[in-house]
Amino acid sequence: MTIQSCVTIINEWDIVAARQLGRNVAKELGFGTVDQARITTAISELARNIYLYAGKGQICIDKLYENGKPGVKISAIDSGPGISDIRQVMEDGFSTSGGLGAGLPGVKRLMDQFAIESIPGDGTQIIATKWLR
Amino acid sequence: MNKLIFKFIETHKLDILDEWIRTTKEAADDRVLRVVSDQVFNSTSREFVDLVISNLNGSKDDYNSRLNEFSEKVVRLGWPLTFVSRGLHTFGVIVLDRMEQSGVITEENQRNLFREFSEWMQPMNNEIIDIYSATWEKTVSLQKIALQELSAPLIPVFERITVMPLVGTIDTERAKQIMENLLKGAVKHRSEVVLIDITGVPVVDTMVAHHIIQAADAVRLIGAKCMLCGIRPEIAQTIVSLGIDLNQFTTKNSLQKGIEAALELTNRKIVNVEVAK
């Protein structure tokens, strides 16, 4: 069973909207403040990547139930330039925009499951999940 | 030709008004009806139709000031723009329907009549949209100024110690202001220690951290020391998970601790004084 809602990311304020949505969903599912902060931070990173690199995309927040255990699934989908070397972007400290380069590896550490798919020239899809313990 | 339309509207004014109020009310959603009472709705509608008619015979100046007044009133009442513009459209449809029914429109004059009619309605529509958007633009620019005012204040708390409390979301625009105010203020107040308090920042992601690190680096360059206060436990955990390196500066979990440490750095401390009885 999944319940989904999405936010389209076009400008910087949409990042705040996506984050707010994620926080509300996490709160509803009963995540504690630490996990809420983890989830919102992960959404913030993914949404900012869309804003910075793809220009336009979507963040979708799903409520998941697996074996009665609830979880939050974040999907970040864009049709931007894509990532040619995924191994490289998953390394700490790699950034093409002069940032800290902790975004994607950070999201992986913040969440329980993390999957990234990207086709250069076609877009990127990142799915990250956090389960309620 | 214009006279024809005008005379028709003038004579059938009440009927048109009745029908218009009826149709508009049916079309109005809850949002409109919730904010206005029946009485206000009816009187405003009457004013609206009067206004539309005065466009036909009144002088241009008179009409413009009335249109302004009316639009401001509608904005104040909180009527959605679509509702007002649809209302104008409905009015046109009613008038044309009635004119057709009563045979004022004939085969020969219909082309001209339609054209004149739309030429008469269009400026009204544009004017209303103009006034609406001007009101919004004004609100947005005022809020932007208000937001800027509270965006990055620097407060001197003790000699050589200043605090910058940050509240709310930090975007690129604000990050720039933080940096500017921090450096300008630190020089102006001759600060030795600058405390950045992030108790009120909801999310610290890599972008926010990056900006804070840059600001702290810049503060160090001008000869002051930067301290980060108000790191909540959950923020501390996410910073660790993200792998952000904050080793460069002292961090404290509350502003109080930060100020104590800052006083210590500047060789001072707060002591209790004994009050003589």
From TrEMBL, chain A:
Q: Do you know which InterPro entries this protein is assigned to?
A: HATPase_C_sf, HATPase_dom
- One GO MF term attached to the UniProt entry: kinase activity
Q: Which residues form the Histidine kinase/HSP90-like ATPase domain?
A: 35-129
Top-level taxon of the source organism: Bacteria
Keyword set, alphabetical order:
Kinase, Transferase
- Pfam families per the UniProt record, alphabetical: HATPase_c (PF02518)
Q: Which CDD domains does the annotation name?
A: HATPase_RsbT-like
What protein name is recorded for this chain? Serine/threonine-protein kinase RsbT
Which source organism?
Answer: Mesobacillus persicus
UniProtKB/TrEMBL annotation, chain B:
Q: Which CDD domains match?
A: RsbR_N-like (cd19413), STAS_RsbR_RsbS_like (cd07041)
Q: What superkingdom heads the lineage?
A: Bacteria
- Keyword line: Phosphoprotein
* Coiled coil residues, start to end: none
Q: Where is the STAS domain?
A: 151-262
MF terms (GO), sorted A to Z: heme binding; oxygen binding
Query: Per its UniProt record, what InterPro entries does this chain match?
Result: Bact_StressResp_Reg, Globin/Proto, RsbRA_N, STAS_dom, STAS_dom_sf
Q: Under which name does UniProt file this protein?
A: RsbT co-antagonist protein RsbR
Origin organism is Mesobacillus persicus
